[in-house]
Input
Amino acid sequence: MATATEQATIATPEVRQTKILINGEWRDAVSGKTFQTINPATEELIAEVAEGDEADIDLAVKAARKAFESGPWATMDARDRGRLIHRLADLIEENFDELSALETLDNGKPIADARAADLPLVIDCLRYYAGWADKIQGDTIPIRGNFLCYTRREPLGVCGQIIPWNFPMLMTAWKWGPALAAGCTIVMKPAEQTPLTCLRMGELAMEAGIPPGVINIVPGYGPTAGASLVKHPDVDKIAFTGEHLTAQRIMADAAMTLKRLTFELGGKSPNVVFADADIDAAVAGAEFGLFFNQGQCCCAGSRVFVEESIKEQFVDRIVERAAARKVGNPFDTSTMQGPQVDQDQFDKIMSYIEKGKSGGAACVTGGNRVGDKGYFIEPTIFDNVTDDMDIATNEIFGPVMSILSFKDLDEIIERSNSTFYGLAAAVWTRDIGKAHQYANAVKAGTVWVNCYDVFDAGAPFGGFKMSGIGRELGAAALNNYTELKTVTVSLD
Ligand code: ADP
Output
């Protein structure tokens, strides 16, 4: 494998699977329709993919229900479920090169990132939850009277899982891991922009021996396939990752069937740099925290607050680093930034850049398209941003950093929290007391101190306020996939 220093261009992978997975079988859409998945680096067609809608969702839900209620999954020992999840992780590892290249092809992310971040995190996540399968247990409770009272954590049932396009494989693993460990069955709808790696993971799941019907995958569009899954009366739960506006739609659609809902949504995360921080580390952390994955991270540190006394120095250094980022062919192992995922995202980001320029912020680097083919945008930094500007309040989901200045801790806590989002925050300081005061006061599901984007399968992740409901990863995610049953036995 080439390292980032020895430049190489990785070959485009073969696309092996483009159909719908229902009950262990690969099939065309009932309607016969397909949709196109496009290579964001070239704007060329990669493949036509079966376009599922209500009819396919219904078949998938029936298969998932049957697999949940009867058959091998329902009666399997928890430890054997764990073994199958381990086997899936092993197969993903065995197909590491193909899967990382397929992720790069469909999503546009640099191959170096797919290899260093996405794939290892996917494998780790599945192994982590494989280990949980036989450790999901209840309590015995000393209630009044002559009774034995205990609780059972039972699998929730048929789970609809709807994921976005920014980390297609990783979002699949975050959803499948806890659901499978708990003994649930799954109907997954991958994002229409990036269905390919999820479908390939489905093939590997079948090869691993996960029984038919346990994992069903229906690619298609949100308002058709996605909405049908949300409204289906025989689906017990929806786990969704995406925009808060879509989550509001889903919540309304799920109301009639009172589905359990967990949401992992957007953010406008503050990344706060105090004057006493290790500036080298803070600059590197700000670069990584925003520009990683083309800025397409729900937890991107998109509001960089820098203490007034060091702001000029900080801006000079971050601009130098941003301008030096290598943007281009994502299959080149030395590329640091690939294209945005599609034309819509590209247009949205460019319109925010225009708003930043016309709104009075100083565009100190970037601000333009790169080349004339593919959805590439220069790493862009705005200085002198104020809290009320569009670029400081809205999630841009692209390589656009806003730098704001601040004076003291109380002020920065208040400004950090003055958003309806609450996904993540970071603080850079050598003063441990200040770091903890900030961590306690900021309304965010994850706080990084002197680091950014440190993810681990064991560490819960999710949002305060309109950034989400519930937590993924860690033991916390298992609660999303179990019902708690209380059993009381008379001992008389
Ligand atoms: P993004 O802007 O990042 O694409 P979305 O929230 O629009 O985020 O999409 C995330 C996922 O939600 C995708 O799989 C998309 O197809 C799906 N989706 C979009 N609209 C709906 C809907 N009304 N019901 C269910 N799923 C939807």
